[in-house]
Amino acid sequence: MNFSQLEAFVNVVRLKSFSAAAKAMYLSQPTISLKVKELERIIGAPLVVRSTRAVTLTALGEALFPFAKKIIDLKSRMEQEAVRQQEGVFGSLVIAVSSTPAQHLLPPVLVRVAKAHPQSCFEVLRSDSSQVMDDVSSGVAELGVSGREVKAAGLESFPLINDRLMVIAPTGDVYRHLHAPLTADLFRKLPFIGREAGSGTRAWTLSYLSRLGIAESDLRQIATLPGNEHVVAAVKAGLGISIVSALAVSEDIKRGDVRGFELEDNIPARAFHLIKSRKRVMSPLAAVVAEALTEFCKTLKI
Which domains, and CATH codes, for the chain? Predict the structure, then answer.
């Protein structure tokens, strides 16, 4: 049994396809198939059920997959640590980030890393959640942080922290009668400020409104704006209501610049995710940033 056999098995299961695993590992499909067969021969029993639709695991495959994945993950971490110890942490890192984490998660983390590793530098590409995935997938960015979970082949995501979204409204007389949670009827009647296409907040908001029986066409949408700061500024000015991350608006609510309303308790949470490529071993600097970001998010209370 060797690492290449285990890695082939793990990628076939992760990507649910021999051909996708072959692309991810830059090998031919017959080579991937042979490596999995060799592993099955060594173990003495089938691990996967091969069909024209998708690859599924046998009962033994289900039992052994977590061990195989852990071995491959530990191998990757060992390689990263070896590089880090030999080369040190320096150089440049490109990070693609969506609106909310760009403002509220990444800056304090980069400050810490820059102080600990002064020879490092960072380029932050701020865009919507869809573009973040594209940037990491294409290799433009080594890491990404987004409010949407990745389901694309070749990428993997790790949850960082659950986000709490809330309704915000102006403080004027027109909105003084509002109380939480806002009804579907109010969402239809009040002017609504939406986020741009591709935004994770937009996708979550439309899903939430759909649970209330509200289609996007039902909204009295008065504006579509990019980024939390533009939305919050528009609400402060009295343009209408919106749904934003609590991270982006907590200080404005404390100062009384806008009114905030909690949503129902039973709605699905939205999480921020760290995104990386499956094809690429993280650079020492990327590994340090990923670890620092994970630890920082553990200290936050939203």
Answer: 3-87 (1.10.10.10), 93-162+270-299 (3.40.190.10), 165-262 (3.40.190.10)
